[in-house]
Write a structure and sequence with these properties.
The protein is globular. The strands form 5 sheets. It has a 7-stranded parallel sheet with strand order 3-2-1-4-5-6-13, with helices on both faces. It has a two-stranded parallel sheet with strand order 7-10. It has a domain of 265 residues: NAD(P)-binding Rossmann-like Domain (Rossmann fold, 3-Layer(aba) Sandwich), CATH 3.40.50.720. The protein has 12 helices and 15 strands. The protein is α/β, with parallel strands linked by helices. β2, α4 and β3 form a beta-alpha-beta unit. The N terminus is likely disordered. α3 packs parallel to α4 and α3 crosses α9. GO terms for molecular function: UDP-glucuronate 4-epimerase activity.
Length: 432
C-alpha cells in the first residue's frame, strides 16, 4: 500500500510583520489550507474505505455487486472444503460446482452428492433475485454435506486456493448472470459474470495440476433470431437477440480458444427454459403462479400477426440427468502448465424437452393446479431480447449422452406447485 502524504506544502516566505492585518491574512490562509487538506484527507479515507477488500460495503456500480470480498482460508475452512469435496464412491469424481446456490446448481450438487461424488460449491449470493431463496437452497445442500464457499468467480486468488486444497477432476460451471430482460437495465453485470468470470475460471483451470474437465452452461438463447426449428447444434448462432445471448455465445467462442490453445476439455450445455421446484422467481411459470394466487393480472405475450409465444419447457430433473451424463462422458484435459499436449474434447449439446408449449397452455395448466382463474392480459411481445419460440433438437445429446427427457409439462408443473405452496404457505418457508 502506498503511503499518503497529507502534510501541507511548505509555506511561502513572509517578512516578519506584527500588524494585525498580516496576522489575519496568515490566519485565514492557514485555515483555508487546513480546510482544503482536511477535505483531501477525508476524501482519500473514503476512497480507501470503499475500495478496500476488507470493506463490507459494495461498490455503487451494480455490475460489480458480486465483487464483495468474503472471509476464506485457514485450517478450519480448508477442512470443510476437503470434507465436502471428498469422493465417497469407488468410481466417483470430485466436482467444483459454481453457482451452486442457484436453481440448476442446487439440484446438480445434490444429485452428485447422492451418488457419492465429492462436491464443493461456490456462489456469490448476489441479489438479482431474492437472496433468501438462495440461502434456503444453501441450507438444503449443507444438510446433505455440500459446503458452499461464498465468493466470486472473478476472484482468481480464491479459485487458485480451492484448486490448491482440492485436486478437482471436474468443474460444473453454472455461475452466470441470468435473465434476458435485465440486460437492458444492467448490461455490465452480464459482461462481468458471463464473460470475465468464465475467462477467470478458465485461466485458473488451465494452470491447475491436473487440469479438470469442464462442463459449463450455455443457453438456448444463443440461437437468437434463427428461424429454423427445431434448433440444432449445427445451426448458425451469430445473430443473438439479446445481450444475455451475446455473452453466452461469446462464452462458447472463448471455450473454443482455451480448448485449442491450452488443451482444456470443455462441454457446453444449451439449456431450454428450465423449470421446477426451487426455481428462479424471474421465470414466467414462477411469477405467474405468484400473481395468479394474488389475483394480479398476468401478461400473455404474443408475437407478430397474433402468433403465440411458445417455449420448450424442460423439467429440472431431466436437465440434471443431462448435466451428470456430460460430466461422466467428459474426457480428461490434455494440457499441463497451461500448455496443450494433444487434441482435447470440445462439445456442445442441446438439453431440451423437444415439445414447445404455448404460454397460454402453461397458464391454463397453472389455473387447473391452483384452482384459481387467471386474469390474463394479451400483450405484444416487447423488443427486449425475448424470442417468440424455442424448440430443441436433442438428437446429438441422445446419441452421445443417452439423454432422454421424461417429464411432461403437466407433471412437472404439478411438482412445482406442490413445492411452491409448501415453501410459501402462511409466509413460512419449508425446508424442502
Amino acid at each position: 500500500m502506498s503511503h499518503l502524504d497529507n502534510s501541507p506544502p511548505t509555506p511561502g516566505k513572509f517578512k516578519m510583520d506584527k500588524s494585525p492585518y498580516i496576522h489575519r491574512l496568515r490566519l485565514h490562509g492557514s485555515l483555508a489550507k487546513l480546510t482544503f487538506w482536511s477535505f483531501v484527507f477525508l476524501g482519500l479515507i473514503l476512497i480507501f474505505f470503499f475500495r478496500s477488500p476488507s470493506s463490507n460495503s459494495l461498490p455503487s456500480d451494480p455490475s460489480r455487486r458480486s465483487l464483495r470480498t468474503y472471509n476464506w482460508g485457514g485450517p478450519a475452512w480448508e477442512k470443510r472444503v476437503r470434507s465436502s469435496a471428498k469422493v465417497r464412491s469407488r468410481h466417483g469424481i470430485s466436482v467444483l460446482v459454481t453457482g451452486a446456490a442457484g436453481f440448476v446448481g442446487t439440484h446438480v450438487s445434490a444429485a452428485l452428492k447422492r451418488r457419492g461424488d465429492g462436491v464443493l460449491g461456490l456462489d456469490c449470493f448476489n441479489d438479482y433475485y431474492d437472496p433468501s431463496l438462495k440461502r434456503a437452497r444453501q441450507a438444503l445442500l449443507e444438510r446433505s454435506g455440500v459446503f458452499i464457499v461464498e465468493g466470486d468467480i472473478n476472484d482468481a486468488p480464491l479459485l487458485s486456493k480451492l484448486f490448491e486444497v482440492v485436486a478437482f477432476t471436474h468443474v460444473m460451471h453454472l455461475a452466470a448472470q441470468a435473465g434476458v430482460r435485465y440486460a437492458m437495465e444492467n448490461p455490465g453485470s452480464y459482461v462481468h459474470s458471463n464473460i470475465a468470470g468464465l475467462v477467470n475460471l478458465l485461466e485458473v483451470c488451465k494452470n491447475a495440476n491436473p487440469q479438470p474437465a469442464i462442463v459449463w452452461a450455455s443457453s438456448s438463447s444463443v440461437y437468437g433470431l434463427n428461424t429454423k426449428v427445431p434448433f440444432s447444434e449445427r445451426d448458425r448462432t451469430d445473430q443473438p437477440a439479446s445481450l444475455y445471448a451475446a455473452t453466452k455465445k461469446a462464452g462458447e467462442e472463448i471455450a473454443h480458444t482455451y480448448n485449442h490453445i491450452h488443451g482444456l476439455s470443455l462441454t457446453g450445455l444449451r439449456f431450454f427454459t428450465v423449470y421446477g421446484p426451487w426455481g428462479r422467481p424471474d421465470m414466467a411459470y414462477f411469477f405467474f403462479t405468484r400473481d395468479i394466487l394474488k389475483g394480479k393480472t398476468i401478461p400473455i405475450f404474443e408475437g407478430a400477426n397474433h402468433r403465440t409465444v411458445a417455449r420448450d419447457f424442460t423439467y429440472i430433473d431431466d436437465i440434471v440427468k443431462g448435466c451428470l451424463a456430460s460430466l461422466d462422458t467428459a474426457e480428461k484435459s490434455t494440457g499441463s502448465g497451461g500448455k496443450k499436449k494433444g487434441p482435447a474434447q470440445l462439445r456442445v449439446f442441446n438439453l431440451g424437452n423437444t415439445s414447445p408449449v404455448p404460454v397460454t397452455d402453461l397458464v391454463t395448466i397453472l389455473e387447473r393446479l391452483l384452482k384459481v382463474k387467471a386474469k390474463r392480459k394479451i400483450t405484444k411481445l416487447p423488443r427486449n431480447g425475448d424470442v417468440q419460440f424455442t424448440h430443441a433438437n436433442i438428437s446429438l445429446a441422445q446419441r452421445e449422452l443417452g439423454y432422454k427427457p421424461t417429464t411432461d409439462l403437466q407433471t412437472g408443473l404439478k411438482k412445482f406447485v406442490r413445492w411452491y405452496l409448501s415453501y410459501y404457505s402462511g409466509g413460512k418457508k419449508a425446508s424442502g
